[in-house]
Structure formats: C-alpha cells, structure tokens
Amino acid sequence: MTTTAHGRFTSLLLDLATHEAEVTRVEEVGAGLRWVSIVGDGLRKAAWTPGDVVQVVVVGETLLGPWEIRSYTPLALDPATGTAEILWHVHGNGPGSDWAASAVGGAPCRVAGPRRGVRLPASRGALVFFGDETSFSTAVAVHRARDVRVVLEVESVEGARAVLDRFGLVDVVLVAREPGDAHLAEVERAVLAAHRVGPDAAPVLTGKASSVQRLHRALRGAGVQGRRISSVPYWAPGKKGLKGH
C-alpha cells in the first residue's frame, strides 16, 4: 500500500480499528521462539476464549502507511490487566517474525481484537490437536482449557520438548521433520491413533497448510465427519497473512 489518498484513508480506518499497546516482556525461550507479553487498555475486559487471535500491526505507522497486520494466538489473555501473552515463532521469513525478533520491553505497538481464530467445539469434549512451532501458543492455550491430545511436527524434538515442558504441555507427541515431508506418515499415524483412543474427540488442525490438508483427508478417510474437523492453516510457503498463529 502506498501513501495515496486511498492509502491514507485505509490507514486512517486501521488506526481507528486498532488501539495503542506496549510490549512489556520479551524472553527467548528456545531456538526461534520468544515469549512476548503485550499490554493495552483495549484488551481490558475483552471477551477471549482459547484459540481466539489478537492482531498486531507489525510494519508501519498506521496513519502514514505502508503497514502490515498479522494475527497471533495468545497462550493466555488476562482481561483484568489487559495482557496478552504470545509464544512467538521467529522464523526469519516475514514481517511478523522480524517484528518479534526486534521487539523489546517498553516498545509501543498497535493491536486489535481479540477475534475468532481456531473454532473449538462448543461441547466440552476431548480434542485432538495438530500443529507445529507456529501452533505452540495455541496448543498451550487449548491444553490449559480442554482435555486434549497433542501431535506436533517440529524441527527439533529435544528443543520443542524443553519449551513445551516449561509451559506445562508435557503429554505431547513430537515428530521431527524429514526431507520431502516423509515424516508426515508418522504424523498421520499419531493423529489417527490419538483419535481412536477417544473416537468422540474433535480434531483441530493448525500449522502448515499442506500438512493440515493431508491430515484432513486422512481423518475423513477414517470416517470422521468433516463438520467435526476444525482446520485453520497458519502458513504456507510463499503466502502471507494466514490466520491465527
């Protein structure tokens, strides 16, 4: 977006739709993972359920443009203090990652939301959750609220386990990535096995779009009704601004 009249008008609308906030905590908790806390009056008394997202302006001064806004799922949001905590995957391949990599305590920012992200079933039944490093924050939030079996594809099993243990997510199946996505056969087996343990459990699929698509097909092939599967891809190679991580 350029600073044309149309661009300025759109930026003005964005400015009205977002609110001022401040980064209050940044901690490196693992390779490519930062624990970021953001506080803003607009988050006070917010209606938030695990899986909902907060949007962060990661590029630009909103009244001037150009700007970029991205959605992230807090692992916790405290409406009493207006604090959103996000376990942020810093992968180096986009403006959201760059923003988190350079974020420091005391830095101002602009946020919007919370808004609907992952749609969890209204019933309080068990869940089967799939994702990757972009899903860690969501996985922790869901684990704290629901009975859930978690399967994650990761770059480093050891590194991922150390991070997730810190946030209390210890009963999780971690599968290391392999060239050509050869590991997805093991991921598929793990997700289907988790579902067989509790056949009434609702699958929630997040993370890489192609992995989500494969697991959706596998679950449908195993007899799971499509309406019971929540699929929210967080990223895909070459695409930007996907929902929710």
Name the features.
Elongation Factor Tu (Ef-tu), domain 3; seven-stranded antiparallel sheet; 6 helices; five-stranded parallel sheet; Rossmann fold; alpha/beta; 245 residues
What is the gist of this entry?
This protein is α/β, with parallel strands linked by helices. 28% of the residues lie in helices and 32% in strands. It has 2 domains: 5-115, Translation factors (Elongation Factor Tu (Ef-tu), domain 3, Beta Barrel); 127-231, Rossmann fold.
What does the model show?
The structure is a single chain. The chain is α/β, with parallel strands linked by helices. It has two domains: 5-115, Elongation Factor Tu (Ef-tu), domain 3, CATH 2.40.30; 127-231, Rossmann fold, CATH 3.40.50. Helix content is 28%, strand content 32%. The strands form two sheets. It has a seven-stranded antiparallel sheet with strand order 4-3-7-1-2-6-5. The chain has a five-stranded parallel sheet with strand order 10-9-8-11-12, with helices on both faces. α5 crosses α6. The relative contact order is 0.15. The model has no long low-confidence stretch (mean pLDDT 90).
